[in-house]
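Record now logged for everyone:
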Amino acid sequence: MPKPNPFHVCATCIHFRAYKEDGGTRYMCARLGFDTQPSYRFDCWVPKDQVVKLMEKRGWKS
């Protein structure tokens, strides 16, 4: 069984958005259109460019 990818979380996805609001920060998936959290994982994950570079540097495949 392959090791889980430590980079695969919402916060590293191109669709992840953070909005400052009164009372805190709101995290949202722009692709799916609903609230999320930085540590959540979904199958639609598309890593940001800098994450892809870091993954390649550390020997992971996207």
Strands lie at 16-21, 24-29, 34-35. Residues 16-58 form one domain. The first strand starts at residue 16 and ends at 21.
